[in-house]
């Protein structure tokens, strides 16, 4: 190979050498930069504050708030959660603890009568999911009468040989966005079966940001086992689905508490507020509890899953 052919390679080598040298020099400058000074008194206050945090108390608070049937505004659990938060503010020593009503209240989807599914003379409780934007899981006053079919995970191949048009489809909750295949094929409603565990992404995929008129419901795994046995018979049963879910304006408020400052300009007083309500997969039922499915490693993102609670509850509201 001639010297002329080798010249470009040598030039590129020098370029990479200088780039690497500059990067190493800049990294050493950053590493040698002095750390910002922290007021020792302020640092001590932060250490004392972090030492005062009781993990068991945080766990108890989460358990208490998640035990209410629903914390959506307008349901009994929201009022109970608000009273709990107010009591905790007072117990923590906050001053001037009070409720601050929201002007005009909040418009929320209210389940006026429990949802039911009647099949072959047996009635099963079902629970409507969060609306598709403004479209709730409302059905005709006399109920929705249609054939009931089972479609497993909701994939297209699982609808092979089934008459989907104008039917009610029973399928697994962990179906991702495959559940949309049912309404695309003409189904009138979808009922999801309670899973052993799921993810937040699965739950959020079950309601849309556009007002698609597809009523969606949740049924317990125990009741679904009975239904799937019925659906294994040769004849497709006819089901009657009933639910009254409409938007209503309900009063709501924030809980306000005040912490008086110490006079130190670096530690001014402050006000804190809390809203005890929340959005949930089913407005009239408590949401799943999301927990790490595995231990998170440094630098990794933990995956979250839901596991069924061992204890049950009996809502006092209209959800049954």
Calculate Rg over CA atoms: 29 Å
Number of helices: 7
Q: End-to-end distance, in Å?
A: 87 Å
Uncertain residue segments: 1-9, 288-318
CATH architecture: 3-Layer(bba) Sandwich
Q: Classify the fold: give the CATH topology.
A: Glucose Oxidase, domain 1
Strands of the largest sheet, in order across it? 2-3-8-6-5-4-9
Specify the biggest β-sheet. 7 strands, mixed, barrel
Description of the structure:
The protein has 320 residues and is an alpha+beta fold. It has a single domain, classed as 3-Layer(bba) Sandwich (Glucose Oxidase, domain 1), CATH 3.50.30.30. The chain contains seven helices and 13 strands. The strands form three sheets. It has a seven-stranded mixed β-barrel. Helix 5 links the parallel strand 5 and strand 6. It is extended and about 80 Å long. The N and C termini lie far apart (87 Å). The model is unreliable at 1-9 and 288-318 (pLDDT under 50).
